[in-house]
């Protein structure tokens, strides 16, 4: 490296913090007696992590229970299937770090990136540069270091990282490791070089050495299993091979941006920014279960999950606008499992009046929506086997937002509801085939936190409707139904009414999507009965409408 070069890439300071044996530390906080004995966290038949005492016996993360017990017969096990305490402490850690910088990015439950560039610059103003002593372990050599000023910045970064870790320990009793470098990639890799309760730093000059010390491309953060499998097609397994492969070859396998990104990673170059993490984008729970083959059992399980989930949402304080159901089915013939998700909008008013716990009748209404989603994912008149059920709430809004702007709240809600409902008429976002056709639905199924992208033309139609809405004298007085009326001008299919045999008060609180379905089902039944010579046809036992028929 040219020691006089002033390198733009060296100007940032990124700190990566990873909590030590996180779940185990949380359990130790709850029960300090577990601190000095080998202890593992059990999820099903796996020890997902363990304290460092247990690691002395060779216990590793995600080891099978039998194997772990053989290595350490007196291993104490704590069930770690309920993640709520881990999640809540995880957010406390992020909040502490946000006191230092707004640029804190969460990764999983126990890792955070902090962009400390500004903090370092501030500190440098009030410090005698000659006296700065770095804190922690260093990776690589200190000879012929780059003279662009990066060395001193990294040193100051180590002081800040040590301060942050101290604060986490003092406030929450948790020890952690930190990595300090000029980009996210290197800070993450370096962080795990010395564990537990230590920190490690690297100067930009040693980036190449660090990358070449990794055993394979798979050990590079940002290169997942799928990418490394694709790289194998061009005989790229090691970092050196990734450095040497021609970019034109990578361009044939990946889009050019990704190809360049991978190439850069191999040299330890990572220009990605630390994104600001706010509150979680989704709050969810899922339970794997022994085979469930009856709808009644599904409903029981969903009731249980929903009650638990409502407690979490209540703690969070925000109001969700969407609920998502995840179902994993097992095919006994092919012995394969399939995971599918489907979502629906929910009426935010279910939550606004809820107090500490959601009211029972609201819970029932959400359950109806869930059972409706379930029926879309699983053909219930054929045998089915469910091995996992999951629920999550997404698209949160703050309670304050509702109080301050009822009009904008209604407007946003309608925009999303309308688009979702129309799209749902066109394709089923849960089927693999439609996922292939629609990038947004594909993203939807793979990333639980992403939102589907509305189709542009439909979005425009609804934007037009919203403009009409905006010109009303008193928009806040408009209700969902008023907006539906304006969309009727564009699409008669949306002329939805409450079926005469359904309970209107319940019907009005349902999302548009479910209202549509009920209305179409009613119309279908009416057409059927006309075709049968006006003989009243009894509703099919599995009809959604049955749920809403007046008692
Ligand atoms: P560390 O960082 O090596 O001291 O140990 P941990 O336990 O903090 O491990 P880490 O940072 O990889 O993961 C944080 C927590 O996430 C960990 O305490 C348990 C959980 N966890 C990690 N890997 C898995 C996994 O493969 N499956 C499940 N279910 N949980 C995992
Ligand atoms: Mg950790």
UniProtKB/TrEMBL annotation:
One of its GO terms (molecular function) is DNA-directed DNA polymerase activity. Keywords: DNA synthesis. One of its GO terms (biological process) is DNA repair. The keyword DNA-binding does not apply. Residues 425-456 are annotated as: Disordered. Residues 432-441 have a biased composition (Low complexity). InterPro entries: DNA/RNA_pol_sf, DNA_pol_Y-fam_lit_finger_sf, DNA_pol_Y-fam_little_finger, IMS_HHH_1, Rev_trsase/Diguanyl_cyclase, UmuC. It holds the Pfam family IMS_C. It comes from the Eukaryota. PANTHER family: DNA POLYMERASE IOTA (PTHR46404). Belongs to the DNA polymerase type-Y family. This is UmuC domain-containing protein. It comes from Henosepilachna vigintioctopunctata.
């Amino acid at each position: 490296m040219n020691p006089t070069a002033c390198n733009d890439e060296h100007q940032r300071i990124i700190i990566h913090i990873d909590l030590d044996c996180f779940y185990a530390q949380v359990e130790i906080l709850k029960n300090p007696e577990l601190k000095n004995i080998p202890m593992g966290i059990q999820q099903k038949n796996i020890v997902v992590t363990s304290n460092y005492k247990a690691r002395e016996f060779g216990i590793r993360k995600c080891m099978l229970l039998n194997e772990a017990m053989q290595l350490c017969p007196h291993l104490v096990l704590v069930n770690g299937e309920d993640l709520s305490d881990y999640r809540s402490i995880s957010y406390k850690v992020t909040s502490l770090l946000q006191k230092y910088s707004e640029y804190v990015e969460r990764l999983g439950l126990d890792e955070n990136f902090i962009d400390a560039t500004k903090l370092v610059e501030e500190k440098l103003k009030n410090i005698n540069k000659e006296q700065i002593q770095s804190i922690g372990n260093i990776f690589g050599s200190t000879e012929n270091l780059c003279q662009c000023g990066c060395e001193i910045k990294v040193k100051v970064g180590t002081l800040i990282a040590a301060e942050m870790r101290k604060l986490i320990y003092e406030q929450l009793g948790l020890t952690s490791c930190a990595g300090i470098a000029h980009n996210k990639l290197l800070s993450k890799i370096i962080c795990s070089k010395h564990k537990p309760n230590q920190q490690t730093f690297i100067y930009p000059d040693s980036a190449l050495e660090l990358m070449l010390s990794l055993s394979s491309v798979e050990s590079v953060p940002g290169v997942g299993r799928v990418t490394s499998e694709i790289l194998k097609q061009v005989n790229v397994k090691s970092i050196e091979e990734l450095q040497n492969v021609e970019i034109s070859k990578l361009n044939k396998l990946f889009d050019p941006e990704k190809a360049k990104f991978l190439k850069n990673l191999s040299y330890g170059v990572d220009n990605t920014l630390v994104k600001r993490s706010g509150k979680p984008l989704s709050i969810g729970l899922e339970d794997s279960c022994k085979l469930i083959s009856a709808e009644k059992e599904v409903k029981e399980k969903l009731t249980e999950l929903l009650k638990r989930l409502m407690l979490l949402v209540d703690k969070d304080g925000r109001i969700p606008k969407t609920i998502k159901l995840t179902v994993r089915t097992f095919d006994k013939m092919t012995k394969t499992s399939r995971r599918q998700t489907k979502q629906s909008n929910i009426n935010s008013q279910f939550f606004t009046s809820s107090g500490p716990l959601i009211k029972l009748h609201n819970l029932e209404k959400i359950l109806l929506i869930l059972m409706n989603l379930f029926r879309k994912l699983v053909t219930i008149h054929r045998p089915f086997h469910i091995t996992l059920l999951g629920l999550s709430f997404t698209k949160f809004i703050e309670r304050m937002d509702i109080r301050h702007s009822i009009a904008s709240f209604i407007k946003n809600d309608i925009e999303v509801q309308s688009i979702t409902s129309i799209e749902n008429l066109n394709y089923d976002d849960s089927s693999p085939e439609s996922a292939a056709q629609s990038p947004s639905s594909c993203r939807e199924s793979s990333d639980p936190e992403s939102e589907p992208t509305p189709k542009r033309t439909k979005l425009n139609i609804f934007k037009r409707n919203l403009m009409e809405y905006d010109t009303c004298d008193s928009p806040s007085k408009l209700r969902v139904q008023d907006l539906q009326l304006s969309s009727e001008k564009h699409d008669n299919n949306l002329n939805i009414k409450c079926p005469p045999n359904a309970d209107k008060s319940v019907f009005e609180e349902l999302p548009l999507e479910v209202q549509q379905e009920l209305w179409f089902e009613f119309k279908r039944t009416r057409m059927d009965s006309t075709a049968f010579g006006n003989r009243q046809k009894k509703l099919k036992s599995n009809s959604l409408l049955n749920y809403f028929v007046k008692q």
